[in-house]
Amino acid sequence: MNNKRVLTIQDISCVGQCSLTVALPIISACGLETVILPSAVLSNHTGGFKSWTFRDLTDDMPGIEQKWIEEGIQFDAIYTGYLGSARQIDIVKHIFETCSKPGCAHIVDPAMADNGKLYYGFDIDFVREMTKLCAAADYILPNVTEGSLITGMEYRETYDEAYVKELAEKLAALGPHTVILTGISYEPSTTGVVVYENGKMAYYQHHRLPKGSHGTGDVYASSFTGALVRGFSAYDAARIAADYTVKCIENTADDPDHWYGVKFEAVLPELIKSLG
Fold this sequence. Notes:
Blueprint: E1 5-15, H1 20-29, E2 33-44, E3 54-56, H2 61-71, E4 75-80, H3 86-98, E5 100-108, E6 113-114, E7 117-118, H4 124-135, E8 139-140, H5 144-151, H6 161-173, E9 178-181, E10 190-197, E11 200-207, H7 216-229, H8 234-252, H9 268-274
Parallel strand pairs: 1-2, 1-4, 4-5, 5-8, 8-9
Antiparallel strand pairs: 2-3, 6-7, 9-10, 10-11
């Protein structure tokens, strides 16, 4: 296997098992050289902790990009997660143009909303800018909330296949080659992912666990990226990532003190095994 280099751009939450502290070990475990570009540094993530520190690294990002350009450093894939501002989105779009090898896979997780609401600090102007980044991507991984915001469709808590198909079609019309809709559930006991590619929709269904966990979206997107760059199809990468994420949640479910993330580390051998 040729050595592939993946760049992932998102924040570092020092405690909390999300963002770069998830992406770096998971993509590395997939046998890929993993390069990071931190967008911010937090003492811990903001979901459930009482307080946190936050240092915005937006001003550092263009200088890092410039040094990569000077050194001729380029990437086989660029995967973005949580971005804290519209300015960071502009920087990422520029990195797509300057630091991509021919055929570089641009993978965007538009991490900005869930359960019908934007995350704290985001507004409709940010949604507009994120929509432009999705249009520049090859693969996007929104949930239903993010998909509805990007397309302007009505958000629904319950929906049918026709709604999901329309959502996927409108997302694909923006420009990405492949749309992966996460957390798609047609009945209470199951959930899954929809892969829309070349005008066709495929659904991978798995059982729904009773308790969600912080950081599972980052676990999913990171393992999807790793499998995709390792040569799996988008559907198989989506399936591998879904199975791995479920195993991470199961591995954490019996520990009430571990509420801030999932114990993904102990399950990495399962992910490596699934990659062959």
